[in-house]
Amino acid sequence: MCAQSLKMKEEFGIDALPILAKSDVVIIGAGPAGSSAAAAAAAGGVSVLMLDKKEQIGLPVQCAEYVPLSLAEEVPIPVACIAQRVEGFITYIQREQVAQTRAPGYILNRDVFDPYLAERAVQSGVKLLTRAQAVAVTNLGVLINNQGELSMVKAGIIIGSEGPKSVVAQAIRCPPQHLAYAKQITVKLRKRSQWAQIYFSPSIPGGYAWLFPKNDLANVGVSIDLSLGGSVATALTEFQQYLVEEGVIGEEVIRTTGGAIPIGGPRLRMQQKNLMLIGDAAGHTHPISGEGIFPAIVAGKIAGSLAAESIRSGDLNVLTRYSEDYLKRFGEFIKRGFEKKIEYNDNWEKANFSVLVRRTWFAFPEYFES
């Protein structure tokens, strides 16, 4: 028995805990990555249990909600899940427009999209248990707190999709991720727009501000790499005031949200033995833009399919293909983003800010130079 299991045994008396369920595959977290993995595994003919600590899937919304049109090639997107289509984004450096990039996409209603994906998984045969928080992963399975009661879920394969503080990542002994921190408000938009807006400023180190239109509303937010300094709250307040003064948005704040965004690239260990990581738990977000929904869904599909194949064949070695399959799809995309993130951080205090942004943001040809 490993040291972690012994500690859990001492703290919780694991041997005496009730077995809540047994499943071939257990997925922790019912976001886009987890639900995609669950549906893929169930399609492979194995039993799947998906756990989520929330009472309502998709709430609270912690996302700017912009996805590329190509997401629809990976998963059907019902009309109700789409707030509006956008043609691309306009980039500003120190509040001066410097580029307009065509990048067709959707602004989602994540409070609709996430429950849809979870229900789609359930319809494929997945069992979903909400208000079930994973406390730890042991050699017996997943220890969960289900409405105040500790119990054990036994599993053949465990997939972690529960964000940066993943207990599966802890079990694999992954080091802490490099994180950016974001805060976002939803406000009324004074004039509808088909273009998202991205703002870079020295007061937003290692990140940017955004305005993503949702018909008569807009998601307005800021993300900052706190290792470079700055204040998320201050930057968002200043950005909000600027947009109000410019007559772009109203003053009323309808909703506030925020959270951590992995910006250090994929974890070096995304799989170990019968454990796998997907989505934010695996660092499946672009190091510069923070884009994560599309790669999370793709990673979930890959991981779920391999998990089913592994269970059917009785061979855990099947799972070792996971990292390679993911990197075949996103490796070059993430590698360049990671290199540009390093370039940005290394030159943050000494480079001309406008030149630095042009070299590290993919709206400009300089981003694609070596």
Quick rundown:
Keywords: Flavoprotein, Lipid biosynthesis, Lipid metabolism, Oxidoreductase, Phospholipid biosynthesis, Phospholipid metabolism. By secondary structure, the protein is an alpha/beta fold. 30% of the residues lie in helices and 33% in strands.
Key terms:
FAD/NAD(P)-binding domain; eight-stranded mixed β-sheet; oxidoreductase activity, acting on the CH-CH group of donors, NAD or NADP as acceptor; globular; FAD/NAD-bd_sf; disordered N terminus; flavoprotein; 8 helices; 30% helix; 2 domains; 370 residues; single chain; alpha/beta; D-Amino Acid Oxidase, Chain A, domain 2; GGR_cat
Describe the structure.
30% of the residues lie in helices and 33% in strands. Strand 11 and strand 12 (208-214) form a beta hairpin. It has helices at 3-12, 32-43, 110-123, 167-171, 232-245, 293-313, 321-347, 353-360; strands at 19-28, 48-51, 66-68, 82-93, 96-108, 127-129, 132-138, 141-146, 149-160, 179-189, 195-200, 208-214, 217-224, 249-262, 271-272, 275-277. It folds into 2 domains: 3-59 and 111-177 and 263-345, FAD/NAD(P)-binding domain, CATH 3.50.50.60; 66-108 and 178-262, D-Amino Acid Oxidase, Chain A, domain 2 (2-Layer Sandwich), CATH 3.30.9. By secondary structure, it is an alpha/beta fold. Strands 1, 2, 6, 7, 8, 9, 15 and 16 form an 8-stranded mixed beta sheet that branches. An 8-stranded mixed beta sheet has the order 3-5-4-11-12-13-10-14. The chain is globular, with a radius of gyration of 21 Å. The model is unreliable at 1-6 (pLDDT under 50). The termini are far apart. The protein contains 8 helices and 16 strands. The relative contact order is 0.17. Helix 7 (321-347) packs antiparallel against helix 8.
